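Run log, item B.
One chain of 183 residues. Sequence copied directly from the ordering sheet:
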Amino acid sequence: MSGNPDIQRLVGDIIRPGVIASVDMVARTCTVEIGDMTTGPLPWLAIRAGRVRIWSPPSEREQCLLLCAEGDTNAGFVLPALYCDAFPPPASSADIVAIAFDDDAMLSYDMAAHHLAATIPDGSVAIDAQGGVAITGDVTITGNVTVSGTLDASEDAIGGGISLKSHKHGGVQAGSAQTGVPA
């Protein structure tokens, strides 16, 4: 390749692979190691930062690209998110969209199976929807259920094999006596 060696060096320094060295969450900046050089604090590029905002800061040791206008690393932007051995992809199928977290939690959607899954090991889930939550389809719950408020069933409620709507009582007597347990 012929031409001005300074221009060739500048062009070669515009996009540089590196590794995140440190992250400042408050300033929304990170430093990048490129060989034996470490940059000063630089902003990272977000997935979305307008009317929709997604907070997913880079991680130390995550591979990245340093985008440097005119080759100036002091005026660069960090494009995180290159898979590596330390941070492999959470799935390998074209049908699966997945988000994996360091604590083994995962959100995934399998487009071929039409299946959405959320795994929260040793954690909890909170839904705050003042307008309500509507579920269409059968629901299976393994574990206890606590209801604070009215439980309304349009058909029937069955507990221990006994129908709330059509169960019978034995030992019924006239007057103020109590009935027996449902039969």
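Observations after the first pass:
- The chain is about 5% helix and 30% strand.
- The first helix runs from residue 5 to 12.
Flagged for discussion on Thursday.
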